[in-house]
Amino acid sequence: MEEARESLYEEMGCFDPNTPAEVTVESSFSQAEPPPPPPQVLVAGSTSNSNCSVEVEELSEFHLSPQDCPQASSTPLQFHINPPPPPPPPCDQLHNNLIHQMASHQQQHSNWDNGYQDFVNLGPNSATTPDLLSLLHLPRCSLPPNHHPSSMLPNSFSDIMSSSSAAAVMYDPLFHLNFPMQPRDQNQLRNGSCLLGVEDQIQMDANGGMNVLYFEGANNNNGGFENEILEFNNGVTRKGRGSRKSRTSPTERERRVHFNDRFFDLKNLIPNPTKIDRASIVGEAIDYIKELLRTIEEFKMLVEKKRCGRFRSKKRARVGEGGGGEDQEEEEDTVNYKPQSEVDQSCFNKNNNNSLRCSWLKRKSKVTEVDVRIIDDEVTIKLVQKKKINCLLFTTKVLDQLQLDLHHVAGGQIGEHYSFLFNTKICEGSCVYASGIADTLMEVVEKQYMEAVPSNGY
Amino acid sequence: MGGGSRFQEPVRMSRRKQVTKKKEDDENFKSPNLEAERRRREKLHCRLMALRSHVPIVTNMTKASIVEDAITYIGELQNNVKNLLETFHEMEEAPPEIDEEQTDPMIKPEVETSDLNEEMKKIGIEENVQLCKIGERKFWLKIITEKKDGIFTKFMEVMRFLGFEIIDISLTTSNGTILISASVQTQELCDVEQTKDFLLEVMRSSP
């Protein structure tokens, strides 16, 4: 009997033999409040039942060892005294039934549904608990009537669950959560959540310590902003955990707030941020930095080219004065004209080396996306816009304005969007740059979109 | 257990003492989606490291300073860009003498187009408009015409005028000619022949 009971208790800890992992989840629900009120020992019924008493002791052993629960010892008595209104006999029966239930737990899994239904139909205050308890994967609590001739378990259990006179005060892992419940309902709850506790205690120790440290470390090392998230989760998933805030000092909180403001500032710097969560902001910041670097390179090259072009034309002018309309560009004629500065010299070299100008950037908005890539004098523009206006028409106008020579266009309607790709060439002498193209196009197309009448723009 | 938090370990150790008192509070303080939370933190952490690797300014090694340094750096880069842009624009408004010189290259394109026209006639590409009905109000349209400045804009204007909605379109150029093939949809009924002639006339006309 003892061995059986021990094995029972082991199995009690994880009701569903198929998912032992959930025990940890369950145990997480088990304790929350800072001064953990001692888990109330499962004492169903009275000491008159020898079975009950033995189990009570065993249970209390389990409870007391991992924790300091000075009050634990008092609770058994308390429980005995506690239920005057509900009649004791059902408790005994209940307890017995539960033991039997444990003994045959393997077949419980498939048969819990009825009991669960009843459980769900508990009073108004049970609205919160079934969710959590279903998370805990509590065994539904009814067996088929034929299953155990000796136990009236299924019916009795469900009866007790649905009855308001349930007496048994059992270990309630959720006790600490301080659900605002009537005592009666609480009893019912405990009925449903019975016998969860023992293994949980041990599990808690095994995992909880680590978790605590983990979270602590997380809190401290991440500049404290993780605290926020944890607190938020706390508030949402568990009631009555508000004490966590008092642990963070005001300076910690200030730091967190300051840190959050930084993210906000970063977001404001980025031209078109789409998401507001931190990871996305950082990701977009990285892309933006790269884009800025590319733009700077492009401008530097453009400026150099301009300077060289000017230099060359200066040179041509001078030579033109001197001689005929000779095309001096190809001649590296330094005889008549020496480069006066290193910059000019490097211009020469650069142009001789045919350094390619290349740049790429993107502009995005809620309805439009513009992608501009420039290699040397070819510009590839990609435009995607939500279908509403004749954006192609406006785009061609912009391209004409920018003196971009169309070489190839392809695109059309794709689902709810228009998508077009333009291969163009920069006219010689024109000095457009990537961001200029992108910004102009974006501006025009966006404006037209916003101004368009909701009906078809055609 | 703390596999994803290797960066946090040193701090965790030092805080152990303070932790034990409140150990019981948080013993089973597990987020219901622990793995997801961990992954989220990891993701943010990785991205912050990547950000730091792009930013040459490093004042501190804290996460807050990564973000702050990034803000400063982006500000700097934006200033750079602004300055370069100004320089560029100043160079745009170059002294007029040089502009005259620079108009030489501008003359070239015009010369080129007239050459291309000749080429087009040489190769024997002829202007052509085809309109083919493929559905109730759907058409396939094919236009071959001489490539001129703003020809595509003109085409789009005509489409709008006719009430043709473009479903998809493809445009290619070769030797001074342009080929447009598109599938279009219209709300109103239209006569194929008339439209064809109209289009041909419009595309031929000079802007």
UniProtKB/TrEMBL annotation, chain A:
The keyword DNA-binding applies. Pfam families: HLH. It comes from the Eukaryota. One of its GO terms (molecular function) is protein dimerization activity. It is found in: Nucleus. CDD domains: bHLH_AtMYC1_like. PROSITE patterns: BHLH. Residues 1-47, 315-338 are annotated as: Disordered. Gene3D superfamilies: Helix-loop-helix DNA-binding domain (4.10.280.10). Homodimer. Keywords: DNA-binding, Nucleus, Transcription, Transcription regulation. This is BHLH domain-containing protein. Residues 324-334 have a biased composition (Acidic residues). GO terms for biological process: anther wall tapetum development; callose deposition in cell wall; pollen development; regulation of DNA-templated transcription. InterPro entries: bHLH91-like, bHLH_dom, HLH_DNA-bd_sf, MYC1-like_bHLH. The keyword Iron does not apply. Residues 243-292 form the BHLH domain. GO terms for cellular component: nucleus.
TrEMBL record, chain B:
Residues 28-77 form the BHLH domain. Residues 1-38 are annotated as: Disordered. One of its GO terms (cellular component) is nucleus. Keywords: DNA-binding, Nucleus, Transcription, Transcription regulation. It holds the Pfam family HLH. Residues 21-38 have a biased composition (Basic and acidic residues). Its main location: nucleus. It comes from the Eukaryota. CDD domains: bHLH_AtFIT_like. One of its GO terms (molecular function) is protein dimerization activity. It is found in: Nucleus. This is Myc-type basic helix-loop-helix (BHLH) domain. It comes from Arabidopsis suecica.
